[in-house]
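Why does residue order matter? Because the sequence determines the fold. Keep that principle in mind as you read this record.
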Amino acid sequence: MKLKDLQDLIPPLLLAAGLIWMGMGQVRAAAQAPLEAKADAQALFTQHCASCHGAQRLGAMGPALLPESLARLRKQEALKVIHKGRPATQMPGFGAQLAPAEIEALVALIYQPLKPTPQWGAADILASRSFDAGSKTWPSAPQWRADPMNLFVVVEGGDHHISLLDGDRFEVIHRFPSRFALHGGPKFTPDGRFVYFGSRDGWITKYDLWNLKIVAEVRAGLNMRNIAVSGDGKLVMAANYLPHTLVLFDADLNPVKQFAATTLDGSQSSRVSAVYDAGPRRSFVVALKDIAEIWEISYDPKAAAIYDGLVHDYRSDEAIAKAGYLNIRRTLLAQPLDDFFFDASYAHVLGAGRPAGDGQGEVDLGQVVNLDVRRSIATLPIPGMPHLGSGISFDWQGRRVLASPNLKDGLVTVIDLQSWKKLKDIVTPGPGFFMRSHANSRYAWVDSMMSSAGAKDTLTIIDKQSLEAVAQVKEPGKTLAHIEFTKDGRYALASVWEMDGAVIVLDASSFKEIKRLPMSKPVGKYNVWNKISRDEGTSH
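Structure:
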């Protein structure tokens, strides 16, 4: 090759080398971009968010910003909240201060799990508690004019408020702000005076319905599933996903005892999926998400001793026993339970797990557990994903039956509570979440709000004697869900589950609309009398 030819090649070679070098630089920059964005997101969080939500995202004046607490908030909705803020709250909009890419970085950050996993121990719980000492002198009668037993507590998820609704005149008595993302349904004391609210990020609020004031608050955990109040109103139990604990409080939310949700040998821990009160047994019953056990914790001071493992003859004192009072009585199962339902005797728990990630195990997910003999005694032939926690029971042709909605399939399954056999699958327009009835009504109502198609706007009305769907109520283009009845069963209240939603009052016999009250995404309505009397059409 001539020198001139080589000289002619040098510029293109240098150009190619430069382009390669620039490309490698771009690759390095692209690889570093996520790390830089993450670092920027943390700095943005510290500057704009930490003062309200805590430096570790565990919550302070504002709610915790953890993926566990944000499970029901879509990322697109989170983007909108950061950009525009939340009406009627202290959450401002940052659209004028932050660029779209910065808001996206913040959203990515708050949906990332914290490492290491944060803990919330006894000292944290105690330090979080507040109590109004003056509450001991508040009047012991309602300070408003209405039937306190026909009061509805309406949880408005759109702007995180509670409305108290007169169930006779269908007028709002009072409205007040709640904690962020209440979950699991409010729980009442036996006299109907106090109600306890539990939030996704672990806060429990005790509220005096008669005096319209907060009595006490405490944070039981960082991500909480639900709470239960003992049948005598003296104890409150909280079920936590994060950390893996159960926490017991007295009626004024003073911590009493904390239980680690682990196997007996401590080798495996679990999220706690549900806790309910079994009033006739004077105990709390607990389902665990990740361990194949169901627990019973008695609050009866005279509860029988607990023997863990096999004992030849407990009457001979041949094994070391634990006190039965406020300790864990374990029943080992074939698979974990996600939620459950009690039969009328409270001796049996009807529970359901969730299908495995590989799609296996979708048949006979349900099981019947006898709490007295402490073992599973039958399976329940319920397909799909039964939502037994929202099931109801009623009499049909001389026998007691359970009817359960289904989170996956468009059907309601009816089970005989003596034989544990399936009587019928009642087809509905789509998968549902809530089912309700009343002792004075011949009808049961179920929604199809879990439908991905066009059935979210439909309530199906089922005749409890024919076990046939006989009517529908629709709210075209909206999500229609969660029926609750008045104390006497004459009226059924439904939720238009939208930000600009409403509570619709319907005649429970003719299904005609009587009144409509505008509300902000009324996710649930709870009638005091139905809840404290445990009416047969009301779930726990």
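The first helix runs from residue 3 to 48.
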